[in-house]
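Students often ask why inverse folding is considered easier than folding. One informal answer: many sequences map to the same fold, so there is more than one right answer. In these notes we will look at a single instance of the problem. The structure comes first.
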């Protein structure tokens, strides 16, 4: 299986420049605690992918892939829990290409509305990535649409890797990069970019304990399909990593750790209340790992990717009520 090269990622960075933002690294002091009151803290550089045009890192891979397509057929289609769908819709609108997005029936309404507002046709199907992928493949065959998978494709991975190049450029002395893990596209790209540029930097994936598909797969030595998943982090809920993203994680990532939903909820609220950063639960997973003390042994600057900020005030209020 061919892995993404540094040259691939550098070329992707040139393609997405001007559409995907070079997002800032914001210095915050993150208090470390299992429960309040908090006992101490450490300085962390938060990579604010919530500031991308559609609110998440996914525009990097989606725009890169669409630009690389020679044949776009009658349009493009993807299957997504939300953020990748919005990214495909935005990339397609930018390039004048029709887009169809298959989303789960449980998709957050704001993400459905966001993709619709960008001009995409929305189809709701099932509750897992398996359900929506099957529907997307059927629609693609019937309607001459070209598939844009959410994570398991080299063009998607190299696009997501541009986030890692930016971290290295803005924080040359970084010791560790924390990456949220859903299907593994962001981890695959960032880990490849970082390790191929500076192998001394640690790259650690973070996924919900209720959807621990990548850590389970790495322990098994092959991609594993979970029987079920359950987590408040809707963007990190695939039941299986991709074959290609798994290969990248095994080759380049130092570790994949898990955090529970309580820790994710607390991190989401902490980012809003204390750091004044808007994160969806999926995006806050890396900060949850820091607050839980999972990476206490890192000696040097840490960059934590805040992968998305597509969360409503109502959702934040519900997390607060559940806390």
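Output (designed amino acids):
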């Amino acid at each position: 299986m061919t892995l993404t090269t540094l040259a691939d990622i550098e070329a992707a960075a040139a393609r997405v420049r001007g559409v995907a933002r070079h997002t800032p690294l914001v210095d915050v002091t993150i208090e470390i605690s299992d429960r309040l009151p908090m006992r101490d803290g450490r300085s962390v550089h938060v990579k604010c992918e919530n500031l991308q045009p559609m609110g998440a890192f996914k525009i990097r891979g989606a725009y890169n892939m669409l630009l690389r397509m020679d044949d776009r057929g009658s349009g493009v289609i993807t299957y997504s829990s939300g953020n990748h769908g919005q990214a495909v819709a935005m990339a397609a609108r930018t390039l004048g290409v029709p887009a169809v997005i298959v989303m789960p029936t449980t998709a957050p309404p704001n993400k459905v509305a966001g993709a619709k507002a960008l001009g995409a046709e929305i189809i709701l199907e099932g509750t897992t990535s398996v359900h929506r992928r099957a529907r997307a493949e059927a629609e693609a065959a019937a309607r001459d649409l070209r598939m844009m998978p959410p994570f398991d494709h080299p063009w998607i991975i190299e696009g997501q890797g541009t986030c890692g190049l930016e971290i290295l450029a803005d924080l040359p002395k970084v010791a560790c990069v924390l990456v949220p893990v859903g299907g593994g596209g962001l981890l695959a790209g960032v880990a490849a970019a970082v390790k191929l540029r500076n192998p001394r930097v640690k790259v650690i994936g973070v996924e919900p304990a209720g959807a621990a598909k990548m850590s389970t797969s790495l322990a098994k030595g092959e991609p594993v399909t979970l029987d079920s998943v359950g987590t408040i982090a809707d963007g990190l809920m695939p039941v299986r990593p991709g074959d290609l993203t798994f290969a990248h994680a095994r080759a380049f990532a130092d570790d994949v750790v898990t955090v529970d939903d309580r820790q994710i909820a607390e991190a989401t609220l902490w980012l809003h209340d204390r750091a004044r950063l808007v994160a969806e639960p999926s995006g806050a997973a890396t900060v949850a790992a820091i607050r839980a003390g999972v990476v206490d042994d890192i000696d040097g600057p840490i960059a934590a990717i805040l992968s998305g900020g597509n969360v409503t005030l109502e959702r934040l209020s519900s997390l607060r009520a559940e806390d």
